[in-house]
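Posted in: Protein Modeling Q&A

I'm a second-year student putting together a small comparison for a lab meeting, and my supervisor asked me to include a predicted structure for YicC domain protein. I've never done this before, so apologies if this is the wrong subforum. The sequence is pasted below exactly as I got it from our records. If anyone can share the structure token output, I'd also love a short note on what stands out.
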Amino acid sequence: MIRSMTGYGQADSAPDESIRFKVEMRSVNHRYLDVSIRMPREIQSLEDRVRRSVQKRVSRGRVDVFINWKLDSADAVSVTVDRGLVLAYQQALTEMSEVCSLDEKPGLDLLSRFPDVLRVEKEQTDADEIWQQLEPVLLRAIDGLLSQRREEGERLAADFRKRLDAVEETSKQVEKRAPSVVEEYRNKLQDRLNEYLGQAEMDPARVLTEAAVFADRSNVTEELVRLASHLTAFRETLQTEEPVGRKLDFLTQELFREINTIGSKANDYEIASLVVNMKTELEKIREQVQNIE
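Accepted answer (user: helix_wrangler)
Welcome! Here is the predicted structure, written out as tokens:
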């Protein structure tokens, strides 16, 4: 079944994990596959692994991946004192006290307020260990994204079939109407000649020749046959599991080509009206095909 390029997926780590990840993924239509990843700076080294995981499962669309994490373990961070900076602050404050003739000395409470005296750092964790916890969450988010894309694809496929049926039914009306066009042209031609020539003798062979030329020029049998073939190919493609967006786009263009040719050759108001109806349905198909993976 075809898949849409629009979808959303999300997954979270289990509550008891030491590192809790939240992964969100959004995708929209795009000519190629474009993966954009936003993740904490501390785990940027895993970006290539994340990208490859997405590329294995998704073939087209712009995919935005958002990864957040939370460390629950107190051992995951360390607090250190910048000894040199503390001594420099202390010396400066002591000098200020002497200049101002004050007995007050800088205390711990005051010194700890100065910037960069205390450094809070996240301890480096092995990238492979982090990936072991991130990968399952990422894969569940991808599964959710693909599930939603399949559901949207099923809805689009149902709409395509309905519109293809409408085009096919209208093409049958064109096929039924086409023979009458030549007969009507022959009768109108003969009536005009009778009107212009009056009682003068008229060559029936000339009328038949003109009608035959018109019939050949306005014959749309080949176009109708090709149109039916493209409709069949389109329906069969909808059943394919592989990405078929580009193929459906090509078939849509071919359907437009045949319908436009029918409209230009038929030289008949009723057929022209039927052609407009087919093009209306096909235009709606073309809009939606752009969103197929």
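A couple of things worth pointing out for your meeting: Residues 36 and 280 are 36 Å apart (CA to CA). Residues 153-289 form one domain.
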